[in-house]
Amino acid sequence: MWLSHSGQTPIATNGPGPGDKAAEGLGQSGPFQESERWRFDWDRPYSRDEWLDQVPTFSGHSQIPPVELERLLAGIRGAIELAGGSFTMGYATVAITASSP
Q1: Distances (CA, A) of 77 to 57, 58, 59, 92
Q2: Please, are residues 91 and 41 in contact by the beta-carbon 8 Å criterion?
Q3: What is the pLDDT of residue 16?
Q4: Residue 19 to residues 6, 24, 66, Cα–Cα distance (Å)
Q5: What does the alpha-carbon distance between residue 10 and residue 21 come to, in Å, rounded to a whole number?
Q6: Whole-angstrom Cα distance, residue 33 to residue 96?
Q7: What is the total count of domains within the chain?
Q8: How far apart are the first and last CA of the chain?
Q9: Could you write out the three-class secondary structure of the chain?
Q10: Domain range holding 27?
Q11: Are 32 and 77 in contact (CB under 8 A)?
């Protein structure tokens, strides 16, 4: 089955993809009917400084020793500068819903 709604990208609900584990958990929990999924693709532009402010908050980056983190940030800073000082990051948000009978 393919789901498609205005402003949303259709995604297959019968193959592997974003949200499969959550949908599987809903199905195995018992009281829910078959789940439905929607995918929302969106973009966000970042300046060099906006991105560098976020990097230390990513997952394990907060555990990197300060000297190594500074080297990482310097490398990322250089890459963004080579790309013109900014870039656009693509994101996908997946929503999964299920109802009970």
Answers
A1: 16, 16, 19, 25
A2: yes
A3: 63
A4: 20, 9, 35
A5: 19
A6: 12
A7: 1
A8: 20
A9: CEECCCCCECEECCCCCCCHHHHHHHHHCCCCCCCEEEEEEEEEEEEHHHHHHHHHHCHHHHHCCHHHHHHHHHHHHHHHHHCCCEEEEEEEEEEEECCCC
A10: 2-97
A11: no
pLDDT (tens digit, 9 = 90+) per residue, 19-67? Answer: 778 777 777 777 877 888 888 899 999 999 999 999 999 988 889 999 9
User: CA-CA distances (angstroms) from residue 11 to 3, 62, 93?
Assistant: 6, 34, 12
State both tokens at 2.
């393919």
- Six-digit token string for 88: 């656009």
d(CA 97, CA 23): 8
Q: Which amino acid, 66?
A: P
CA atoms within 13 A on the CB side of 2: 6
Residue carrying structure tokens 């000297």 = 67
Question: Which two tokens mark 94?
Answer: 């997946």
